[in-house]
Amino acid sequence: MFNINDKIKDISDKALVSVRPYFDRIDEITEYNQQKMLKAFIDNRVSESMFAESTGYGYDDRGRETIDKVFAQAVGAEDSIVRHNFTCGTHTLAVALFGVLRTGDTMLCVTGTPYDTIQPVIGLSGKDGMGSLKDYGIKYEQVELDENGRIDLEAIENAVSDKIKMVYIQRSRGYNLRASLSVDEIGEIVKVSKRKNPNVIVMVDNCYGEFVEKTEPVSVGADLIAGSLIKNPGGAIAKTGGYIAGRHDLVEKCACRLTTPGLGREVGATLGQSRELFMGIYNAPRVVGEAVKTAVFASQVMKLMGFGVTPEPDEIRHDIIQAIKLETPDNLIAFCKGLQKGSPIDSFVTPEPWDMPGYDCRVIMSAGAFTLGSSIELSGDAPLREPFAVWMQGGTDFHASKIGVLLAAQEVMQANE
Ligand SMILES: *Cc1c(COP(=O)(O)O)cnc(C)c1O
Questions:
Q1: Beta bridge partners of 201
Q2: Residue 327, helix vs strand vs coil
Q3: Most buried in the list 59, 95, 219, 260, measured by CB within 10 Å?
């Protein structure tokens, strides 16, 4: 149906045989997480009437109140807020940071330079006076990753003192070639940090990590986690939004930052979004399983074609991102074009590299998604600079996403003929 040539078919068949045991491992995690989610729905007596929309102030919206409890239970947290009002992941993380930090506090990031869009929030880049943490007198310190791109527990232990209010961890690699953190590694950071300062707040940027493992960072002592609903936890159904979960007192502060002190979580019309948010979080564990399978398959296919991949096909995953070192700009462009051809939406358009704001080089992206910018749907991003790697993620169902991966591989093969 898709004009996939015999060479690529052969690579695909070989790849499928190799990844079978890894798929079994993924299925086992998906089953556990999906049943955990079902249990959270049952225990909190979710009913169809909760999907009703509220307008205006949105007082006493039972859907809004219940989804907070369901999601908190599913991620093993005391409390959570799940809202369509968060505009994106960056906004959600910013609300959490401003929610708990105060003038004079110090935030310590222990996973090297944070994700690009978080830097202006902290005040590391961008214009002064726009309301960054720095503008409000909140200080920032950073512990670098070690030479292998792993967390440096000794340096973290040395950096955490009574003066540190928050230890900040980025779980996913972002658009970087470092490894993602496992929940266990996050647990080690929590242990050394709290040994030095029992009052320190550990916050995790959990983007791309949700439901990839059987537990989330709150289960190993993180106080607060946050992420975007157009990535893993929205199950490719939520149209927009974000979540913050963790300790009840901290989540309350974040709710007061999202709205205002005094109003907190008691306001916020759901405008008919509740059904999709419930459906999204319900479907998230299964969809994440499909995305992880797509990543593992892509890793194996591109490795068989002779490219460097990270993670390797057999590595245990901690997020849904797959980086592929394609070596040349032409290969990057070919890969993104092929991936786009295998997308359900906008399959007929040809992605082109462009000068995206905030980048120091041209970037090419492929995104044929139902939701604009949704990266739980099959998508790829590649800055046209060394090491000429593409970061691929998402795929709501392996059977279709497999085609996107194979068409991408075929374009790369043809570009080199
Ligand atoms: C996506 C992402 C963000 C920001 O989310 P947006 O929805 O793009 O604003 C922050 N941190 C990490 C690690 C991410 O992957």
A1: 166
A2: coil
A3: 95
Task: Give the residue from 207, 212, 213 showing the smallest Cα distance to 114.
Answer: 207
* 155, 141 Cβ separation under 8 angstroms: no
How far is Cα 145 from Cα 271, in angstroms, rounded to an integer? 43
The alpha carbon of 89 and the centre of ligand 1 are apart by a number of angstroms equal to 5
DSSP states of 125-156 as a string? SS-TTS--TGGGT-EEEE----TTS---HHHH
Atom in ligand 1 nearest the alpha carbon of residue 230:
7
Contacts of 389 (CB under 8 A, 6+ apart): 177, 323, 324, 325, 326, 382
Give the separation between CA 371 and CA 354, rounded to whole angstroms.
Answer: 21
Q: How far is the CA of 415 from the centre of ligand 1 (A)?
A: 32
Residue whose structure tokens are 């979960």: 245
Task: Check residue 388 and give left, alpha or beta (phi > 0: left; psi -120 to 50: alpha).
Answer: left
pLDDT tens digits, 172-208: 987 778 889 999 999 999 999 999 999 999 999 999 9
Q: Is 111 in the pocket of ligand 1 (CB under 6 A)?
A: no
Share of the chain above pLDDT 90, in %: 94
Other Cβ atoms less than 10 A from the Cβ of 41: the count is 18
Does the predicted model carry a pTM greater than 0.90? yes
In the chain, the percentage of residues whose pLDDT exceeds 70 is: 100
C-alpha span between 370 and 66 (Å, rounded): 27
The alpha carbon of 290 and the centre of ligand 1 are apart by a number of angstroms equal to 20
Of residues 203, 301, 313, the one with CA closest to residue 250? 203
9: Cβ contacts below 8 Å, ≥ 6 apart = none
Q: How far is Cα of residue 183 from the mean position of the Cα atoms in its chain?
A: 14
How far, in Å, from the CA of 198 to the mean position of ligand 1? 29
Q: What is the largest CA-CA distance in the chain?
A: 65
Residues 6+ apart with CB under 8 A from 80: 68, 69, 71, 72, 243, 244, 245, 246, 251
Ligand 1: residue of 90, 119, 288 to mutate (most ligand atoms within 8 A of CB) is 90
Which residue puts its alpha carbon closest to atom 14 of ligand 1? 207
Cβ(242)–Cβ(68) under 8 Å?
no
